[in-house]
Amino acid sequence: MKATVIATRVLISLSGISLLILGILFWLGYALAYLNVHMALGLVLVLCLLLLVVLGLSTRVSTGLTLLVLVWSLLTPAFGVLQMRLLPGEYHWLIRVLHLVIGIAAVGLGHILAKRLVTPEPLVSPGAGPA
Fold first, then answer.
1. 120 φ, ψ (degrees, to nearest 5)
2. Chain segment 46-61, per-residue pLDDT in tens
3. Residue 130 backbone zone (phi > 0: left; psi -120 to 50: alpha; other: beta)
4. DSSP letters spanning 56-95
5. Inter-axis angle of helices 35-59 and 92-118, nearest 10
6. pLDDT digits (tens, 9 = 90+) for 35-46
7. What pTM was estimated for this model as a whole?
8. Mean pLDDT over all residues of the chain?
9. How many degrees, rounded to 5, is the angle at CA 4 between CA 61 and CA 11?
10. Of 69, 114, 118, 122, which sits most exposed with the smallest number of CB within 10 A?
């Protein structure tokens, strides 16, 4: 499982960096022909998150975090697809910033869950306090 988590984490990093670079180019008015590449990379990111969710649920790693990543992995592509219809006009830049924040949070949540999957939680016995 550790190798799968590491490979998934690498894919999350590579897709996240690529998505960020393409997104910046889009904001600057360049590379608009690569919108399908951006969407495909977003799909790779979401599939990686979903794989981590499955691993998290199967190993019972922090159920709250795992469910948060699940919800976030569903929110991310939905917002990406709908963003052009949201708040059109002068204030659409707010939607763009929100899209960026959602994407960066998706990458961060993926890394947090991946780390929890490969790092065992410390066992604390009841009543154990500082020495």
1. -65, 140
2. 999 999 999 999 998 9
3. beta
4. HHHHT--HHHHHHHHHHHHHHHHHHHHGGGSS-STTHHHH
5. 40
6. 999 999 999 999
7. 0.88
8. 92
9. 105
10. 122
Closest listed residue to residue 72, CA positions, set 111, 120, 37, 117:
111
Of 24, 46, 48, 45, nearest to 34 by C-alpha is 24
Tell me if residue 126 falls in helix, strand or coil.
coil
* DSSP helix, strand, coil percent of the chain (3-state; round to 5): 80, 0, 20
The span from the CA of 127 to the CA of 108, in Å, is 33
- List the one residue out of 9, 15, 14 whose CA is nearest residue 115: 9
Q: Which residues contact 41 (CB under 8 A, 6 or more apart)?
A: 15, 18, 19, 22
Spell out the residues 6+ positions from residue 8 whose beta carbon is closer than 8 angstroms to its own.
48, 51, 52, 110, 114
Residue 124: per-residue pLDDT: 62
Alpha-carbon gap, residue 85 to 99, rounded angstroms: 13
